[in-house]
Every structure is written in C-alpha cells, then in structure tokens.
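Agenda item 2: adenosine monophosphate complex prediction
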Amino acid sequence: MRIFSGIQPTGRKHLGNYIGAIRQYVDGQERGDPAIYCIVDLHAITVPHDPQALRRSVYDTLALLLAAGLDPDRCVLFRQSDMPEHTELCWLLSAVTAYGDLTRMHQFKEKSQRQRELVSAGLFFYPVLQAADILLYRTDEVPVGEDQRQHLELARDVAERFNARFGEILTVPRHRIPEVGAKIMDLQDPTSKMSTTTESTAGVIFIDEEPDEIRRKVRAAVTDPGREIVRSSDKPGISNLIEIMAVVRGVNPADVEREFAGRGYAEFKQAVAEAVVEFLRPVRERYRELRPDEEALERTLADGAERARELARPVLADVRRAMGFGPAVRQPV
Ligand code: AMP
Ligand code: TRP
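Presented output:
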C-alpha cells in the first residue's frame, strides 16, 4: 500500500501536529510500500514568507520528523520544491479541478480572511497542488488531521474526474484520520484548533518546548465549569485534555476518565503535564542533536528526492500521454 503525506515547513510544529499527523507517519513506515513524506515548501509561499526563514524552517521540520522516528531507510522523505514534477502535475490537474469546489474550501476562506495585504492566487490554488502531491505517487492512503478532510475529498474528486476523462490512470486516495486526537484544541481557547497562526502561543505546546513551559501552559489551560473529568460537548477544555492524555499514554479516553473519576482538575492537569513532558522529552533531545548538522539534513533530502523522482516519473509520463502531450505512441499492429 502506498502512503503519502505532506507537512508545511511553517512555524514551530506543535502537539496537535504530532498527535494528529506525525504519530501516524511513524506508524505508516511499517505498513507503507513505501511510505512517502514530503515537506511542502511550495505550499508555504501561498502566504507572505521570508525566503531565509523558509529555508531554515525546512531544516527545522526535517530534523523534527527524524527526531520523532521517521527513518530515511524505511520511508521516502523529501522536499517538495526539489521535485518540479509536483508543479507540473498541479497544472495538468487544474484542467479537471472545479473552480466552484475551490471557492468552497474552508481553509481558503479562513486563511484569505486573515491576509491584510494580498490574497494570492496561490492560496486559492493550494488544494490543487496538494492533490498533485498525492496523486503523483498513486497514493492509497493519506494520514492527516481532521482539518484536511475537505482537501482530501477534493483530491479524490480530481482523480475521479481525471480517470473518467482520460482513462484509469490515477489512484483515488482515501484519508486516514485518527479516531482520537484528530483535532487537538488550543489550551487557552478549546473551541479553536491548536495552531501556530493563532496570535498568542499561550495555548500552544510546541514539540521542542522546555518541560517547565509545558507545565506552565497545561496548568494555565482553560477548563470548564463543574468538576467532573469526563468528555462532553459543554466541556471542551477538559475533553481536549482527556484526548491528549489518552494519546500520550497510549490508552482510550474512557480509561483516562475512569482513572481520574472523583479527582480534581488541578491534580488532573498536573498528571497531563507530566505525561506530555515525558512523551515529548526524547523527541526534543533528539531534535537538539540533529538540527545543527544542516549538511547531513541536505543529504537526506537529496537522497529522498532521488527516490521520489523514480516513483513519480512513470506516473507523470502516463498523465502527459493520456492528456495528449508529447509525440503519439504508435500502437503495435
Ligand atoms: P501543517 O502544519 O498545517 O502542515 O499540518 C500538518 C499536519 O498536522 C496535517 O495533517 C494536519 O491535519 C495536522 N494538524 C494540524 N493541526 C492539528 C491539530 N490541532 N490537531 C490535530 N492535527 C493537526
Ligand atoms: N495542506 C496540508 C496541511 O496543511 C499539507 C499538505 C500538502 C498535505 N500536501 C499534502 C497533506 C498532501 C497530505 C497530503 O497540513
């Protein structure tokens, strides 16, 4: 089974990324044939960006993925901009992407509202490039968090429309969204997802965060009226902490509720803080070791791109041929 996912090299990666996505990438290495992971720097230019910072952020993200357990011998790990095949396929797929569908993308609506100076055409086109990323590898399964559900639906529609018009060339992918932890919420505002684009980072736990900072942020997490430690729609703060605790402990949310039944919020928060500190500790330590060696990181990316290209080339060639580019292939008589 082909597994593919992409992660943006923007901002510091946080506990939501780890729980919703990166954890699944590591797991995919066992099941993928192969598992392919892409640092999507071309997606990062759809909002204003600083070129120097972008280059550094690719290294930050790569070092973090390696620290979290991605092993370049067991997966294909590369940088999107090293592969012009992605941008070429993006353009070809634009022919089978519905303009109306793009206007309905939640992420576009949300991100375009936040732009002060320019809403770029790239931001609007973002999901087409994402579809190209996925379809270029005849991907079966795409591990992502809940916020990518709609983009995955679009990629499926694009593949289906392509196949209907030009023949069965592309694989229609399915998403893999975890049952628990698909949408980790901001600790200060548990009705919004944890994200680096929020103005304040008080409710965001970064993967490379110092233990004392983690403790402080969890202790300050907004909780709800009442005192019971149970999941419920009117208890978004406590529900979020229960989900976090379940994932970092590797148990079910119901187990967490049982364990903490009758105990107070303060005690629960303290336990969550310690569990998160221990969960992230090895990743943070490994990240510190790996991040400084940019030459080694560059070599990893170059190797990854070479392997990705071998997988991508035949698919792109099929797409080009089916769409009528290049000389006609003579049919044997
Ligand atoms: P990004 O950093 O936007 O490229 O996101 C990388 C991955 O993390 C995607 O698969 C997202 O769906 C996932 N993700 C982002 N934020 C969260 C969150 N708060 N909870 C769970 N998953 C998330
Ligand atoms: N849009 C995704 C996000 O914000 C990143 C992404 C780009 C992606 N290309 C992808 C995810 C392909 C899965 C598959 O998280």
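Discussion summary: The domain at 211-288 is CATH 1.10.240.10 (Tyrosyl-Transfer RNA Synthetase).
Owner for follow-up: CH.
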